[in-house]
Design brief:
Number of helices: 3
Strand order of the largest sheet: 1-2
Largest sheet: 2 strands, antiparallel
Radius of gyration: 17 Å
Order of helices and strands: HHEEH
Number of domains: 1
Keywords: Signal
């Protein structure tokens, strides 16, 4: 149940962040290229690990019914090499936060 709540919180944070993104005008040539890329990227490919990227997410604390926001970065210079390592840290941080606040 805790993992489900954590996943819902992460998805909700991602959707809110996506709505706040900048809208960029692109030419018709760029649209054609993007369509080709999106068809090729239908497979589940991990994020690009060649540059540092950060992901902001929220952890739900059930005993206090609050959310705690955290940021996890991965890539060169972040101390976390890959997205898989970052995801492991996100899950561990969620467990530790619940243990800390709920005992």
């Amino acid at each position: 149940m805790k993992k489900l709540i954590l996943v819902v919180a992460i998805v909700a944070t991602g959707l809110v962040s996506a709505k706040d993104g900048e809208k960029i005008k692109v030419s018709e040539d760029t649209n054609k290229k993007e369509v080709v890329q999106s068809k090729a990227s239908q497979n589940d490919t991990p994020p690009d690990d060649t540059k540092m990227q950060c992901y902001e997410y929220s952890m739900f604390i059930p005993c206090t019914e609050t959310f705690i926001t955290d940021t996890q970065c991965w890539g060169p210079g972040s101390g976390t090499a890959t997205w898989e390592d970052a995801w492991d840290c996100i899950q561990q941080n969620g467990s530790l936060a619940v243990d800390y606040f709920c005992g």
